[in-house]
Specification:
2 domains, about 55% helix, 2 strands, mainly alpha, about 375 residues, single chain
């Protein structure tokens, strides 16, 4: 049984090689052309490959955590699965699908180092074939499908779409830029004057020069007495990490123990304060450190679903209010700080995902899922 069979539960009967690419090329060329000119070819024995976005997300998460040869092979097959999915997805449903669990798995994939791995020969052929299709021009309606299918096969910075701000849909532009033209991100992340006016609450607008209107930033709360350098030192404290790990284990054994619940509430506020005080350039390394592993374990323990004390509800409200505009300074830090205050599935970003770094966006679907 092949690796594909092990992943998705069936025997692989179709090889993915040059012959398959040649056959698929005809389908691509006539995807939205005159259907009357396309001969109907249906297999009497349809090949059905069950897969799930959650399973793909787990594959990419495992690969990002430890890129063993087996996990690399699994990630390659998962990438192939998503690439084929986008080619067959309805053109008028792409934005909706990109905002769904499938899109989250896709963003998780492009946030890993998978694209930095050398391509296999069949993968090179697949990439080159799709690239040729893109070069025919962006006036064809299926170009967003093709772009989504081919992007994961290019190394960061090694693909360029001419006039991308005109040729790409708004919902894809920021993710494209983060991979291939990061110099565009500062401009893309700037809200328009109309958006700035809409974001400014009553009584919070102050003059910032002739004709300029800027929203005043709401204050960030202090979550713990250990802040600043003291808070950051805790991320390397064996005593702090061991105690938190032990409390999480005890909670999973007895989630109704009042003393454990109270101490975990204190640790939750300290976790939030650590993220608030972490400089931007240290966020990803800290997220991928043993401290970050314990942070994710805390989220997956189920403690975030326990009722909040009034003080914690007020803190959560202040943090959530701040990230209503994800273009604000330290927005990523605030997201990490506020996540432990929300039960699974109870926080949404209403389009703010485009302003998140890929390493966090890719991890979001799995943060509350036990490994």
């Amino acid at each position: 049984m092949s690796l594909w069979s092990r992943l998705f539960g069936r025997r692989d009967t179709v090889s993915w090689g040059e012959k398959k690419l040649q056959k698929d090329s005809g389908l691509l060329d006539t995807l939205v052309s005159d259907p009357g000119t396309i001969p109907m070819e249906m297999d009497r024995r349809p090949q059905i490959t069950p897969w799930s976005a959650a399973r793909l997300g787990t594959i990419f998460m495992d690969f990002a955590h430890d890129a063993t040869p087996t996990r690399l092979a699994e990630a390659r097959l998962a990438r192939q699965c998503l690439s084929k999915f986008w080619l067959s997805a309805p053109i008028d449903a792409l934005e909706l699908l990109y905002g769904s669990a499938v899109g989250q798995s896709y963003r998780q994939m492009i946030g890993t180092e998978l694209s930095s791995q050398p391509l296999l020969r069949d993968e090179e052929s697949w990439r080159d074939h799709l690239s040729e299709r893109l070069q025919s021009g962006f006036d064809r309606p299926e170009m967003a499908n093709v772009l989504l299918a081919v992007m994961p096969y290019f190394r960061p910075g090694k693909m360029k779409v001419r006039n991308c701000e005109q040729n790409l849909p708004d919902w894809l532009l920021a993710d494209y830029a983060s991979l291939f033209e990061p110099e565009l991100l500062p401009r893309l992340r700037q809200p328009s004057p109309l958006e700035r006016r809409a974001l400014a609450p009553a009584g919070a607008v102050k003059a910032a020069g002739p004709g300029a209107v800027e929203p005043e930033l709401p204050p960030l709360p202090q979550l713990s007495s250990f802040s600043g350098a003291q808070a950051l030192q805790l991320t390397g404290s064996e005593e702090f990490l061991t105690r938190l790990n032990g409390l999480v284990n005890l909670f999973e054994i007895d989630p109704d123990d009042g003393a454990i619940l109270q101490e975990l509430a204190s640790f939750r506020r300290q976790l939030g304060q650590i993220w608030l005080d972490t400089p931007e350039e240290r966020l990803q390394p800290l997220f991928e450190s043993p401290f970050g592993d314990l942070y994710r374990k805390f989220l997956r323990s189920g403690y975030a679903g326990t009722p909040l004390a009034e003080e914690d509800r007020q803190l959560r409200s202040q943090l959530a209010n701040y990230v209503r505009n994800m273009t604000r300074p330290k927005a990523t830090q605030v997201v990490l700080a506020v996540l432990p205050f929300y039960p699974p599935g109870k926080i949404g970003f209403a389009g703010g995902e485009q302003f998140m770094p890929q390493w966090l966006l890719g991890a979001l679907p799995s943060l509350y899922v036990k490994s």
